[in-house]
Design brief:
Blueprint: H1 16-24, H2 40-54, E1 71-74, E2 91-94, H3 96-103, E3 118-119, E4 131-132, H4 135-141, E5 158-161, E6 166-169, H5 174-184, H6 187-205, H7 210-214, H8 216-220, H9 223-237
Parallel strand pairs: 3-4
Antiparallel strand pairs: 1-2, 5-6
Helix pairs in contact: 6-9
């Protein structure tokens, strides 16, 4: 799992009065939250920034995604946290498998009592009952959650073992454990990483340059794992 640096939201992203207006008209006639992030006016710029944040990889598994063919993942799901539905700080680039099949609507149950009230600060004096979502304050105190790769120091929670192609949970981290169980504790994940590992081992043995090997990440994704495998086999054969 790759450490990420969150980029600034695009200039076109809805702000100020427009954002308040959208939140006050949050749901459609069927009670569903309106997906403003998918509106043509904003979608291209939103997805471009999220795509660039991960260098075109899923923020969770590392799989390569298309520049437009990926899910705008809500770290705190919009169904449970409606007043964070349009918070750019809550968005991640995710492949459809991680978002729709693995994470789904998972959220920290310790936030149950405030999930419907937690919202962006701009809404506090505009919508009754909304309380400010201070990301650092909330996430630092919440341990029954998964890693947020633009916020957490991943190495405090998980350690990847190249030889076994799996993760070890560090410091008895419940956050690391939840993340491991959700995304990585699957036989097919280990099998696929093992196949990448064998390829990298062969390339190192054949004397391919570091740049040639790491460039594979731009083609197939999984750049975090490719680098870890490269480092392991380079040291092993030296």
């Amino acid at each position: 799992m790759k450490q990420l640096i969150r980029l600034d939201e695009p200039e076109s992203f809805f702000k100020n009065e427009k954002k308040i207006e959208f939140y006050k008209d949050l749901r459609d006639s069927n009670g569903k939250i309106r997906s403003r992030w998918n509106l043509p006016t904003y979608q291209e710029d939103i997805k471009k920034v999220l795509f660039n944040t991960t260098n075109g990889e899923c923020a969770f598994c590392g799989r390569k995604v298309g520049e437009s063919d990926f899910d705008v993942e809500h770290y705190l799901p919009k169904e449970q946290f409606p007043y964070l539905a349009y918070s750019f700080e809550n968005y991640l680039c995710s492949c459809k498998h991680c978002n729709q099949s693995l994470k789904k609507t998972y959220y920290p149950k310790s936030l149950d009592s405030i999930k419907q009230s937690l919202g962006e600060s701009i809404l506090v004096n505009e919508i009754d009952g909304v309380i400010t979502y201070n990301k650092k304050e909330i996430l630092d105190k919440t341990t029954d959650r998964i890693i947020e790769p633009t916020f957490d120091n991943i190495e405090e929670h998980l350690d990847f073992e190249p030889l076994s192609c799996t993760y070890l949970v560090k410091n008895n981290s419940s956050i690391g454990e939840e993340t491991y169980k959700m995304f990585f504790n699957h036989r097919e994940v280990v099998d696929y990483l093992q196949s990448i590992n064998k390829q990298i081992m062969k390339m190192v043995m054949e004397g391919n340059s570091k740049d040639t090997i790491l460039d594979l990440g731009f083609i197939c994704g999984y750049s975090f794992y490719i680098e870890k495998f490269y480092e392991y086999w380079t040291e092993f054969f030296n």
